[in-house]
């Protein structure tokens, strides 16, 4: 229990830190791009929305910094992230709400597949050292060094432009109306396959290498030798003893590298023009839509924190040492 | 001071005589015969020869002590005999013959994986030195004892296996409700007892114990050693007990083999080694430990350090550190021979040129006279 | 890889608590075949050597790239969207610019940002990590939480929102932003190692001798962290290179400054994909992969140097197969070679 409380405390601190970073960034930046944008949209923007933007970006120089900070938190906790300029006058929160299911669907599923398959392959390679399996190592080293988005470019060239197997962009056939029909869902799957495959291929090598190294380390632990001495089946020794312990650091590193992976996969959405969070982040950057940028950063951080909590929970289930009963 | 049984007056008097009869016929009924076992470290062209043609016989019901300094190859011998030596260990020759209760001999080094798996734990079980790391940290200990049982007896249900595990824990003096504990919830001594209970799960005929007490404090060491001796007397398995602590071996072992630089240099009854060590190294080793009982002896270190196994020459590996070394020692590596001193146990063997005049003459040297203190006491 | 055996044997013996017999020299015999100082072992690692050679190549290009580039990378010509030829090794862009020259000139930007960010982030990481590990207590708690916060917050989006709000984004600015967000991993590893070093005998002894904290850290602790600092530095350089290229690719940063990311940005925005102009984006990606791989290989070398267990026992897989050796845990291979020797 103490383990979980400690971790929970940590996530609260991280959330606070992320919000605070978000609060200070526009305030320490030179120039006032938002003021210019508000001025440009004068008359079209409601007074409420304008005051929210003033609070978010620190334009009210007459109030104290502390007062600004309190007001800022007040807005954040009410889910008010300001108004998007690109999708004016849609609130940032609504833009994000429309995008996030796509990202969770694509990035989430692809990441889980990549982690599961990569961990399995890594266990195998780490277990069967000195066999043909070792030759997979240089290949995965290469893939771990390639930027995700470049692999996406290659995938589009080969599978969309040259072979024409998959669409090069978008998340579903635009002629369809989004409903829960089979036609629509199959279109989503069809459009999502290539981006998902690309994410899996580019991120899987990290999991393979990590698990392989952990397997090598764990394999030389005494308890694995004891398991062999007991005459247990190869399967039991591999999964029950070696991989079962090697996966613990793998899960922690999953939690820690999630931020990095999410960052990389968001760029994939840009390349595939997949209408998730990453794509909106890109359009926000291109259009200098600061409220949207900041809002997306916050939402991504919260999502990553949530995934971390899940990973911690899984770790607690997997490792009895974290659940000291006294 | 009597050394008939390690359990002095611990209510084991009737068993002591049994132990004695075993000791007088150490290899009449062998359960494990290691013959000319050679082991290399390294798969490249220039491996280190860590074991060189080691032969050793374990009699049924016997406790055989294996002693020597760190790095002499005593653990390697145990791991190689069970084929558990980790990479880059490589067995390059020899035989490990196991004789089961019906007298059938099998060479463990010629078994395929399936056969070897079936034999393990059933015929021969091991207790490793690191009690801390020998248990899987993520499983309850009940499950870890039970999975060994069920791997060999597929018909056993998990419930039956756990009941057996509870009995085994009881055997080593641990409350059966500890079945539900995780390893990190147990003390070091308890973990080592769990390992012993686990090793006894399938009633093996040979139990190899690799420094089972090294990580424990002295009181715990003593309790564990006594417990092993008592269980041996009760269940009748044979033990190979590996340690660098010779005085501990004198207490528990029937016979002691001393290893040096990957070879056995002396192999004799425990009391003979204690009172009349024939090899200068055995003698030196004995004098570098305080005896657990009896009069205090002067502690003398062994000068120099163990030889580099990759740079061994032709001569005796101990010659550089030996106060009795003479010219021939640099030329011949002594073989294990029976000195056959009148009145001595005829089966005791030693690898020292002082006891092997014919080998000295073979290289054209004159053997020195056998010193009076070695002839017979 | 002749060092394997000595390390295995040593590791095995070192794990035993010191109850060694009172022999003249207590058990600390040096491994059998350790010739030469320990430092040189790293340089004998084939992975590390390969990585160093590739890295050296890119460093060289970073220095001389702009001089040996056959064309001005921004100069337009009438050879529009030409595939690779003798005149244009990597083909041309939609404006007739020479892709090969762009790559050569762009190497410097990548290397400079990578190394500046690497040095800065490693510096922050060493200061925070070593301090946290050495002082312990509340200071350690605070600094650890700080490092973990920076680890969990997604770096790339953070870099994007910071860099996206800066009025002008030059290479060095990007490097600073990357360093500020990317120091945490190194700090975390260094903290753990410092913590364990602090309890070692030689540090305790130095403290008992009354040496100053500063001296203990610089003379006793830092030298033992060299490998970890080096690996952290290499890892951060790789991260910085990827971040820079990603930023350039999504159009953040000075587009007048050439680097491999800006090449990819133009290729993407000018529809190189749809036009089938593979030569426009393939070379830049391969360069990134090659540079990244060289850094990964160097880190493999360092890892294997620090953790001997990871060292490949495989040596030459083919020769092992020929001798029927399959190195694995729990089933020691048996070869009957010794017997033949005797026969």
UniProtKB/TrEMBL annotation, chain A:
UniProt key word Plastid: no
Keywords for this protein: Membrane, Transmembrane, Transmembrane helix, Transport
Domain named ABC transmembrane type-1: residues: 100-311
Membrane-protein topology: Multi-pass membrane protein
GO biological process: transmembrane transport
InterPro entries (UniProt xref): MetI-like, MetI-like_sf
Transmembrane segments annotated in the record for this chain: 7-25, 99-127, 148-168, 188-209, 254-275, 295-318
GO cellular component labels: plasma membrane
A Pfam short name: BPD_transp_1
Superkingdom of origin organism: Bacteria
Localization: Cell membrane; Membrane
Family: Belongs to the binding-protein-dependent transport system permease family.
PANTHER family to which the protein is assigned, alphabetical: OLIGOPEPTIDE TRANSPORT SYSTEM PERMEASE PROTEIN (PTHR43376:SF1)
Record protein name field: Peptide/nickel transport system permease protein
Organism: Agromyces terreus
UniProtKB/TrEMBL annotation, chain B:
Major localization class: membrane
GO function term, MF aspect, one: ATP binding
GO-annotated biological processes: peptide transport
SMART domains, sorted: AAA
Matching PROSITE patterns: ABC_TRANSPORTER_1 (PS00211), ABC_TRANSPORTER_2 (PS50893)
Stretches the record annotates as Disordered: 1-27
One Pfam short name: ABC_tran
Localization terms from the record: Cell membrane
Keyword tags: ATP-binding, Cell membrane, Membrane, Nucleotide-binding, Transport
Membrane topology qualifier: Peripheral membrane protein
Domain ABC transporter: start-end pairs: 32-286
Superkingdom of source: Bacteria
A Gene Ontology cellular-component term: plasma membrane
InterPro entries reported for this sequence: AAA+_ATPase, ABC_Ni/Peptide_Import, ABC_transporter-like_ATP-bd, ABC_transporter-like_CS, Oligopep_ABC_C, P-loop_NTPase
Family as reported in the entry's similarity comment: Belongs to the ABC transporter superfamily.
Record's protein name: Peptide/nickel transport system ATP-binding protein
Source species of the chain: Agromyces terreus
Automatic annotation (TrEMBL), chain C:
Stored Pfam families: BPD_transp_1, OppC_N
Record-linked InterPro entries: BP-dependent_transpt_permease, MetI-like, MetI-like_sf, OppC_N
TM annotation in the entry: 48-69, 110-136, 143-163, 169-190, 225-252, 278-302
Localization annotation: Cell membrane
Domain ABC transmembrane type-1: residue ranges: 107-299
Residues covered by region (Disordered): 1-33
Family: Belongs to the binding-protein-dependent transport system permease family.
Protein name: Peptide/nickel transport system permease protein
Protein source organism: Agromyces terreus
């Amino acid at each position: 229990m103490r383990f979980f409380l400690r971790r929970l405390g940590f996530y609260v601190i991280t959330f606070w830190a992320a919000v605070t970073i978000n609060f200070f960034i526009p305030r320490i930046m030179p120039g006032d791009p938002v003021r210019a944008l508000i001025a440009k949209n004068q008359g079209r923007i409601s007074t409420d929305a304008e005051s929210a933007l003033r609070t978010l970006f620190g334009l009210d120089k007459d109030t104290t910094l502390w007062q600004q900070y309190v007001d800022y938190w007040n807005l954040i906790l009410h889910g008010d992230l300001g108004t998007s300029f690109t999708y004016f006058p849609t609130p940032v929160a609504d833009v994000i709400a429309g995008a996030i299911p796509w990202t969770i669907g694509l990035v989430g599923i692809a990441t889980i597949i990549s982690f599961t398959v990569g961990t399995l392959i890594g266990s195998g390679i780490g277990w069967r050292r000195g066999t043909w399996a070792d030759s997979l190592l240089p290949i995965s080293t290469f893939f771990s060094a390639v930027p995700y988005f470049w692999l996406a470019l290659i995938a589009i060239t080969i599978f969309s432009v040259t072979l024409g197997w998959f669409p090069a962009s978008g998340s579903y056939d635009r002629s369809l109306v989004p409903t829960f029909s089979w036609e629509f869902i199959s279109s989503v799957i069809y459009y999502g396959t290539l981006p998902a495959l690309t994410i899996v291929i580019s991120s899987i090598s990290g999991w393979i290498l990590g698990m392989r190294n952990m397997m090598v380390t764990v394999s030389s632990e005494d308890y694995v030798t004891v398991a062999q001495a007991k005459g247990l089946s190869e399967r039991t020794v591999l999964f029950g003893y070696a991989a079962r312990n090697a996966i613990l650091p793998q899960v922690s590193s999953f939690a820690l590298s999630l931020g990095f992976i999410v960052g990389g996969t968001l760029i994939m959405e840009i390349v595939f023009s997949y209408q998730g969070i990453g794509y909106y982040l890109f359009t926000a950057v291109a259009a200098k839509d600061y409220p949207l940028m900041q809002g997306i950063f916050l939402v991504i951080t919260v999502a990553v924190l949530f995934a971390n909590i899940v990973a911690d929970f899984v770790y607690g289930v997997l490792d009895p040492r974290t659940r000291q009963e006294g | 001071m009597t050394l008939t049984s390690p359990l002095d007056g611990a209510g084991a008097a009737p068993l002591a005589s049994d132990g004695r009869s075993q000791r007088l016929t150490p290899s009449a009924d062998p359960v494990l015969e290691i013959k000319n076992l050679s082991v290399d470290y390294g798969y490249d062209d220039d491996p280190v020869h860590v074991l060189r043609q080691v032969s050793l016989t374990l009699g049924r019901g016997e406790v055989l002590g294996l002693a020597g300094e760190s790095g002499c190859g005593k653990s390697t011998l145990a791991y190689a005999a069970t084929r558990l030596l980790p990479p880059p260990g490589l067995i390059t020759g020899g035989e490990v013959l196991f004789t089961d209760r019906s007298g059938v001999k099998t060479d463990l080094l010629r078994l395929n994986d399936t056969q070897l798996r079936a034999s393990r734990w059933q015929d021969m079980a091991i207790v490793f030195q690191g009690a801390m790391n020998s248990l899987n940290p993520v499983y309850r200990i009940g499950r870890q004892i039970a999975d060994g049982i069920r791997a060999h007896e597929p018909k056993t249900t998990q419930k039956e296996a756990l009941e057996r595990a509870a009995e085994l824990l009881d055997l080593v003096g641990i409350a059966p409700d500890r079945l539900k504990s995780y390893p990190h919830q147990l003390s070091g001594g308890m973990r080592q007892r769990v390992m012993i209970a686990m090793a006894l799960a399938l009633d093996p005929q040979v139990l190899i114990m690799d420094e089972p007490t090294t990580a424990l404090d002295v009181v715990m060491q003593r309790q564990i050693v006594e417990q092993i001796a008592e269980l041996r007397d009760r269940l009748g398995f044979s033990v190979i007990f590996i340690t660098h602590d010779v005085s501990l071996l004198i207490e528990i072992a029937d016979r002691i083999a001393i290893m040096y630089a990957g070879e056995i240099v002396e192999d004799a009854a425990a009391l003979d080694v204690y009172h009349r060590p024939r090899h200068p190294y055995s003698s030196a080793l004995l004098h570098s430990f305080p005896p657990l009982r009896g009069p205090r002896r002067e502690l003398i270190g062994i000068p120099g350090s163990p030889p580099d196994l990759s740079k061994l020459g032709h001569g005796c590996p101990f010659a550089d550190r030996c106060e009795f070394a003479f010219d021939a020692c640099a030329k011949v590596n002594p073989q294990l021979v029976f000195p056959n001193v009148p009145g001595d146990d005829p089966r005791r063997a030693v690898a020292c040129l002082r006891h092997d005049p014919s080998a000295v003459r073979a290289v054209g040297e004159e053997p020195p006279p056998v010193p009076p203190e070695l002839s017979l006491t | 890889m002749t060092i394997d055996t000595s390390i295995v044997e040593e590791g095995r013996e070192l794990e035993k608590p010191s109850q060694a017999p009172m022999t003249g020299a207590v058990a600390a015999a040096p491994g059998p075949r350790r010739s030469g100082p320990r430092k040189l072992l790293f340089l004998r690692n084939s992975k590390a050597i390969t990585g160093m050679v590739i890295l050296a190549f890119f460093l060289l290009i970073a220095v001389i790239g702009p001089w040996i580039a056959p064309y001005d990378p921004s100069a337009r010509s009438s050879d529009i969207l030409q595939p690779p030829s003798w005149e244009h090794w990597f083909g041309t862009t939609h404006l007739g610019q020479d892709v090969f020259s762009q790559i050569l000139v762009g190497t410097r930007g990548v290397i400079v940002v990578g190394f500046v960010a690497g040095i800065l982030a490693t510096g922050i990481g060493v200061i925070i990590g070593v301090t946290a590990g050495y002082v312990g207590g509340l200071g350690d708690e605070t600094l650890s939480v700080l490092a973990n916060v920076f680890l969990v917050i997604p770096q790339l989006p953070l870099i994007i929102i910071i860099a996206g709000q800066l009025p002008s984004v030059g290479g060095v600015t990007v490097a600073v932003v990357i360093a500020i967000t990317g120091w945490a991993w190194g700090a975390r590893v260094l903290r753990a190692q410092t913590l364990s070093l602090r309890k070692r005998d030689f540090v305790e002894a130095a403290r008992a001798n009354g040496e100053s904290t500063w001296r203990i850290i610089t003379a006793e602790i830092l030298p033992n962290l060299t490998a970890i600092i080096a690996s952290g530095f290499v890892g951060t350089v790789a991260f910085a290179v990827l971040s820079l290229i990603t930023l350039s690719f999504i159009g953040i940063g000075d587009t007048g400054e050439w680097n491999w990311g800006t090449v990819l940005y133009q290729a993407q925005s000018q529809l190189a994909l749809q036009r089938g102009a593979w030569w426009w984006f393939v070379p830049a990606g391969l360069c990134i992969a090659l540079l990244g791989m060289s850094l990964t290989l160097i880190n493999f070398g360092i890892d294997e140097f620090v953790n001997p267990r990871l060292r490949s026992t495989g040596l030459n897989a083919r020769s092992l197969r020929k001798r029927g050796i399959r190195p694995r845990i729990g089933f020691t291979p048996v070869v009957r070679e010794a017997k033949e020797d005797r026969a």
